Amino acid sequence: MKKTNSILMLTAVFVVIFAAACGAPAAPATQAAAPAAEQPAVQQPVVEQPAVQQPAAEQPTAEQPVSAPLVLTDTVASETYCVQKIPYQNILLDPGATFESLDSKGELKCSDSGTVVDGKNVITCTGKELWTYELKITSEAGSGVMKVNIGACPLPQ
């Protein structure tokens, strides 16, 4: 009977220690910067600058459109599908848009699938499981960087 009580006591202590270690909320990183944010803001004196007009060559014209950054939504890793244990991610792009992998190792490989869905071209990207890569997208509206999140392939059952 004494052995059983010792085992139960040790198990209870282990459970309490485990719950305390795993259940404690982690302090967000924003709390570290909070004291600096609480300092009163120092107002700078306002100095008016005379308006300077840009030379005509630097002003955008109809022939030189301003390239605005594109607002791109990142892919979702849960939308990854697998073919023979190789993960793939489909991305819909506007017609005429170009793409370029910013992966210096060359692990992210994207190609135009030749498919059109809802008026958008489908490109298919593949890379290492559970990795995130950057893909530069350029279109008539501008350019931007999209994060391609490659998910995991399910384990065989």
Model description:
By secondary structure, the chain is an alpha+beta fold. The chain has helices at 2-23, 34-38; strands at 68-69, 81-83, 86-93, 98-101, 109-117, 120-126, 132-139, 142-149. A 4-stranded mixed beta sheet has the order 1-8-7-4, with no helix packed on it. It has a 4-stranded antiparallel beta sheet with strand order 2-3-6-5, with no helix packed on it. Mean pLDDT is 74; it is low at 26-42 and 49-62.
Essential attributes:
157 residues, alpha+beta, 4-stranded mixed sheet, 2 helices, 8 strands, elongated
Major sheet: size, sense and barrel closure?
Answer: 4 strands, mixed
Mean pLDDT: 74
Structural class: alpha+beta
Strands across the major sheet, in which order? 1-8-7-4
Count of beta strands: 8
- Helicity range of the residues? 10-25%
Query: What integer value in Å does the Rg equal?
Result: 27 Å
What's the helix-strand series? HHEEEEEEEE
Percent of sequence in beta strands:
25-35%
Question: Unreliable segments (pLDDT under 50, ≥5 consecutive)?
Answer: 26-42, 49-62
| Total helical elements | 2
State the end-to-end distance: 43 Å
Shape: elongated
Q: TL;DR of this structure?
A:
The chain is α+β, with helices and mostly antiparallel strands and 157 residues long.
